[in-house]
Amino acid sequence: MTARPKRELIAATTALAAAWIAFALLVWLYGESPLLVARLLLAGTWGTAYGVGQVLFKATPLLCTGVAVFVGLRAGLFNIGGEGQLAVASVATAVVGARVGALPSFVALPLLVLVGAAAGGAWALVPAILRARFGAHEVIGTIMMNRVADSLIGALLGGGLAVAGSVRTADIAPSARLPRLDVLVPALRGSAASFALLVALVLAFGAAWAFRRTRVGREVVLVGQNPVACEAVRIPVARRIAFALVCSGACAGVASAGTVLGYKGYYELGLGAGAGFGGLAVALLGRSSPIGLALAALFFGTLQQGGLAINGHVPREVMDVLEGVVILGVSLSDADVRRAFAREPRRAAGAAA
Known about the structure:
The chain is built from 17 helices and no strands. With 353 residues, it is an all-alpha fold. The radius of gyration is 20 Å and the shape is globular. It starts with a helix and ends with a helix.
């Protein structure tokens, strides 16, 4: 095992150990047995076919937003705008999906996945330009766009986009619905797991392949490692930074396949909330490989579903605390995260001059 995977393994193991300690302490403070509550959590998730299906359902958007953060980190960027990018993409997917009734599923479904990706990428375009051209830090830019998305979506729904008397859009066309996984695995019947999981897996493996096998992908990685050296060999640093952040937003937008196409069949206010920030934890814990990302998404999907299973003993918000502990633990030991915050943004701006 080389030095980098070994460091990532140590960081992930340390973060998970810290999460278990935090879990045990919080459960104990509520007067419950940590082992008993842990058994209830596992029984309510991996102990039943329905629980497994719900874990897969909750892991699907987390995997997409985790890939989004992973893409940004490879370029030395920290995209925390997944919440806004996913929300805007979900609205766009729902609006277009309601108008594709004449199209067959094999046309409508790829089209709507592309619509979600395009909307998420477009929402990341403003912070991408600010970062690449003017040196504004992407963390500030993506936070700003999250807030703008909240206000814009509320205004659109209140301005006539929503069905009268509700905070949801019209139903998408039947041909635009992704089938549930119980078509293949009847035991999952009743859960919300859908073929969006396969879309998310293709996205994860596709992103990893692009970084290894394409010229642009390799240049993005090099820019993330040393932008000054890349400038010296005439790699267009600013363009690669902007490209990576837009692609990151597009990956977050693909998560709308799980929330709109595979689950609700429409967009309602708050749909998918939390998945953008959850993607941070997924990327930081499992970004060494697409398999690592998938396992991390399953882990946090288990925590989300497990929070419902243990809610009668401790508040399900305990799972949110554990997610935060993992993010903090991995971030403190992750070189790419430290580099994303420490790098002087003006260097990229200078490359665009």
